Amino acid sequence: NSILKVTNLVKRYNGGTLALKDINLEVKKGEFIAVIGPSGAGKSTLLRSINRLIEPTEGSIEFLDQRIEKANKSELRKIRSKMGMIFQHYNLIYRSSVLENVLHGRLGYMGSVAGVFNRYKEEDKQEAIMLLEKVGLEAEIYKRADELSGGQKQRVGVCRALAQNPELILADEPIASLDPKSSAVVMDAIYKNCKEQGIACLVNLHQVDVAKRYATRIVAVKAGTIVFDGQASELTEEM
Ligand code: ADP
Ligand code: ADP
């Protein structure tokens, strides 16, 4: 029941930085995993290699029995539709409404966000509204995304990812720009929904205490190498 298998992954950026050295990682269905490590360790490079926002240099990435690093454009689009992304800086379409942003996740990222209003069905809209209500955004549904606070924007980001009905959520420092209270609300929303729906999650976090609070499995990355992969309770101080 493994949904993701990363084997001997290497990433060397143009210019020479060896950001990932030899990463091996297997993720099972519904597993919630925190990826920790200092700034520059390679956490973001790892997540972005998995959905091929960046091209891996070497190695293989298998997701639901498909080889991501070999996928062509249309295969990649299909693969990505099963992977929800959550970004540190939200990456919402700020001229559009909260609802349109979530529908964009539901209907796929082809075409403009404004275009979603010609394509959605009533059930898509109801699903989007249900997700927004679950994270406490029922009063924000028709607001423009740029009217929201940071914590609210990230909750929209979470709903957009969930609206894809993904098998995997990749969250790259989702709370790094938020205050502690909003951070807890956002992490709770990610965790609860993933658990409820059996969605696996890889979440990059730089705070070890937050990682331990949510994840039973922790992967620690240092200088492009996985230095720990195991139970949160076994993580020692020097990681
Ligand atoms: P983290 O997410 O753990 O902070 P990153 O994956 O962002 O780490 O970065 C890993 C290493 O790769 C760092 O040394 C960083 O400077 C380098 N790096 C990241 N992005 C690029 C890029 N686009 N071009 C060149 N080097 C990069
Ligand atoms: P951050 O500011 O959070 O580090 P970036 O601004 O570097 O993120 O954006 C990373 C890339 O991901 C951008 O090129 C953007 O076009 C792309 N992107 C934005 N939203 C999504 C999404 N929902 N799914 C896939 N890719 C996306």
UniProtKB/TrEMBL annotation:
Q: Write down the NCBIfam families for this protein, in alphabetical order.
A: ABC_phnC (TIGR02315)
* Species annotation: Niallia taxi
Database matches in Gene3D superfamilies: P-loop containing nucleotide triphosphate hydrolases
This chain belongs to the protein called Phosphonate ABC transporter ATP-binding protein
Domain of life of the native organism: Bacteria
One GO MF term: ABC-type phosphonate transporter activity
- Its gene is phnC
Q: So what EC number does this one have?
A: 3.6.3.28
Q: Name the GO cellular-component terms.
A: membrane
Enzyme class, UniProt record, top EC level: hydrolase
Q: What keywords were assigned to this record?
A: ATP-binding, Cell membrane, Hydrolase, Membrane, Nucleotide-binding, Phosphonate transport, Translocase, Transport
Does the keyword field hold Nucleotide-binding? yes
Q: ABC transporter domain: which residues? A: 4-239
Query: What InterPro entries does this protein's entry cite?
Result: AAA+_ATPase, ABC_transporter-like_ATP-bd, ABC_transporter-like_CS, ABC_transpr_PhnC, MetN_ABC_transporter-like, P-loop_NTPase
